[in-house]
Amino acid sequence: MPSPNLILCGFAGIITLAVISANSIRNSEHKEIEQLLPEPNIVEASVKIDSLNAEAPSPEIITGKIHYSFITTLIKAGLEQHEITTLISRIENKFDIINQAKKGDKFSIMKDINSDNESYISAFYYQGREKHFFFISQDGDTVYDEYGDSLDNTQYKPPLTQQYRISSGFNMERFHPVTHRITPHLGTDFAVPTGTKVLSIADGIVIKSRYNRFAGHYVNVRHNNNVVSRYLHLSKRKVKVGDRITQGQAIGLSGNSGRTTGAHLHIEVWVNDSPVDYLTFMKQQNTQINTPILLAAQKHKSRLIAALEGSAQRLEQ
């Protein structure tokens, strides 16, 4: 059986790395920033097994009780390495398995089969002295809590702690105030004083942190679902390439660097390699309610709790 320490070391190295490539800076008379070409996200993260409906591929529930550590209990439960890796990646930012998992805590796991006939963890419930935690995943990728809210922080938040006047919006045919040419304005400008904290709109990985003569000091952050946010014309950058950051973390200070006419924050959002209107994106993302996920989450959580109580029943197809 693998050593728990080796397993944990392996998990620390499995955190996804994204290799980013970008185009060179475009003609300075026509484009004030370089075009970003994101690559797809790469996402990696005593026992009783209740066999369910055998007539067709059906979910399976595994329950466990921690005697030594969470990791070793997962191994004894018979989870495969890729399943353990995925589980850890799902919960590592929400649940401290080293300090919060205690002897005597219990958990239940629902395993399912995807369209490629591969097993994946479709639901997880942890019942502990210091922590109760649940997630559901219907596609083996995006995970949600019991209320149907994404745990991947796709509920984006503004980059500023208070409201500021919008000095220039998303406009594919804007008259540029410096070049006096019609040039696409791919972001939204907020008139904020120099030195204002600029916050990441969601969890992510810093893929660029540099300076150029058009964007000034700028930071690009890759989020889930192939979304990238860009923060331009900063006076100071507080993160470097490769940093894993959380929603609301300060990534820099606003400023007046690069080609500008005054201090402001220019923020862009790119989805699937294409720029979108930041204001429209925020409104759409934060008003969607995933009712099917909400109902499925409540149903699965009840079944996982029942399994822990020793009264698991056959799951309906």
UniProtKB/TrEMBL annotation:
Record's keyword terms, sorted: Hydrolase, Metal-binding, Metalloprotease, Protease, Zinc
Keyword Hydrolase: yes
Protein name (database record): Uncharacterized protein
GO molecular function per UniProt: metal ion binding; metalloendopeptidase activity
Pfam family, one: Csd3_N2
Annotated Gene Ontology cellular component terms: cell envelope
Source organism of the structure: Vibrio caribbeanicus ATCC BAA-2122
GO biological process assignments: proteolysis
Lineage, highest ranks first: Bacteria, Pseudomonadati, Pseudomonadota, Gammaproteobacteria, Vibrionales
Keyword Hydrolase included in the entry's annotation: yes
Signal sequence segment: none
UniProt subcellular location: Cell envelope
Cofactor(s) essential for the protein: Zn(2+)
Chief subcellular location: other
Csd3-like second N-terminal domain mapped to chain residues: 60-171
Highest rank taxon of the organism: Bacteria
SUPFAM superfamilies associated with the record: Duplicated hybrid motif
InterPro entries named among the record's database cross-references: Cell_wall_metabolism_enzyme, Csd3_N2, Dup_hybrid_motif, M23ase_b-sheet_dom
Pathway: Cell wall degradation; peptidoglycan degradation
Domain (M23ase beta-sheet core) ranges: 184-277
